[in-house]
Amino acid sequence: MPTLPALAYQRDSTPTSTEPSSKEGTIVGTPSLSFKSETSSVIEKLPWDGYLEEDLPEKKEGKIFRDLRHIVFTIYHRIFGIVFFANAGILIALFVYGVTSQRLGLITVANIFVAIMMRQDYVVNAFFDVFTSVPQSWPLWFRLLMARVYHLGGIHSGAAVSGTIWLAATCAQGTQERVSGNGPISVATLTFAWLILIFLGCIIGFALPWFRSASHDTFERIHRFAGWTATGLVWVHVVLLTNDWRGEKSLGYALVHSAPMWLMFIITASLALPWTRLRKVPVRSVVLSDHAVRMYFQYKVFGMHPRPVPGSFGRVSLDPLQEWHAFACVPVPGTDEWSMVVSQAGDWTTKLIRDPPSEIWVRGTPVSGVLRVNIMFRRVVFVATGSGIGPIAPCLFAHDQEHRLLWTGSNIRKTFGDDLVNAVTAADPDAVIYDTRKYGRPDMVKLTYKMVKDFNAEAVVIISNEPLTKKVVYGLMSRGVPAFGAIWDS
């Protein structure tokens, strides 16, 4: 008779084998289990048994308003809109009351400055440190608001698009001044302004979601190399524009008192800082299966941040000028190591699994992501599919609150190895581990909602692929359950 797979439902906190139970068992229905022994008869249902028959509550609000709120006007898009329309208002006012190419150039650099700083590792971590410091005792509505900190990328994109529009206005105003003879702007200054506009236009075009998801490696290379080139061109443009408008002052004096010049110093330092910490480090790679590898690092790898906080990720590369990949930093309990779990998800990861490295490139510092917000809630349901357990595992190990794990995947113990699975189930002995090979793909919205209701959770955090993440987050949020997941904004 068929037996219950060791990882279908895990109650033993220290499993050591994937062998079937020595007890007899039969699978009945969808599915319930009957276990028999010589001395007793015990019937135990799987934790998801019958969940498909339970009705989900009706979604709140009408469909049009609901879709506008949760799909069209997400927090990210709202922040983008605030930044964009604030800039648009200033731009209109300046053209109504009069403006010069010098003033437009200053506002252009200011927007580029904001866009770059909102992607700087230490700035991102600072925002997360401040927003997630809200105590769990504070009102839930306020904690939910602060937990949307991971949408602050909307400031980055809003400022980047606005800066490009400001630059277009600078080019137009400068050209008008040159043609009419109403300003001191030079041909060289205009030439560099138009060149920068072309580069920024390319960066924004290739960063559009549909292209970014279709060809992420190309997007990353263009973003990096076009961005570096544009930064160099902006330096030249700032010097030329300052020289055009310096009047009787010396160029040196004018540059020292030029706000764009100082902003460019900070921008350049911000871009260079992660690369000053570029190095090739030893890594201990353990192939878990044909679909996953686990790489172990010493804590000191990232220097100033020796112990990555739960919910953070680090970047690694085999070719530092070509492509970088971010993976969650997973501590190894009881050791001075932390690790990254890499599962098969493309050519790069496939190569890494088939030919595991003994050395790998790292740069910068671990950066906080969406999972960092979990510390703001008293009771959390974590949802992971497949290798999504990598980012979630550190949050389980930290024990910052009462939590429950839902982990779905195919042959999880075989794929990810005993060490990781045992550590996860030790951190949450009541974890629900659903074998999709045995039971098929579950209705994730229904199953997650059942766990939220049974566990009385304040929030859900999911790490999965993009379509499923969006489906679960929408399915829960539209029913009044706070849910958080990655937003794929970079």
Break the fold down into its secondary structure elements and pairings.
Layout: E1 24-28, E2 32-36, E3 41-45, H1 63-72, H2 75-97, H3 101-117, H4 121-131, H5 140-146, H6 153-180, H7 187-206, H8 209-214, H9 216-244, H10 251-256, H11 259-276, E4 279-282, E5 284-289, E6 292-298, E7 312-319, E8 323-328, E9 330-331, E10 337-343, H12 347-354, E11 359-368, E12 379-385, H13 389-398, E13 402-409, H14 412-416, H15 418-427, E14 432-435, H16 436-439, H17 444-455, E15 459-463, H18 466-477, E16 483-485
Parallel strand pairs: 12-13, 12-15, 13-14, 15-16
Antiparallel strand pairs: 1-2, 2-3, 4-11, 5-6, 6-10, 7-8, 7-11, 9-10
Helix pairs in contact: 2-6, 3-6, 3-11, 6-7, 7-9, 9-11, 17-18
Briefly summarize what is shown.
This is Nonribosomal peptide synthetase 12. With 490 residues, the protein is of the alpha/beta class.
Descriptive notes:
With 490 residues, the protein is an alpha/beta fold. Among the domains are: 79-276, no CATH class; 279-368, Elongation Factor Tu (Ef-tu), domain 3, CATH 2.40.30.10. The chain contains 18 helices and 16 strands. Helix 3 packs parallel to helix 11 (259-276), helix 7 (187-206) packs antiparallel against helix 9 and helix 17 (444-455) packs across helix 18. The longest helix has 29 residues, at 216-244. The protein starts with 23 loop residues before the first strand and ends in a 5-residue tail after the last strand. Residues 1-43 have low confidence and may be disordered. Residues 1-29 are annotated as: Disordered.
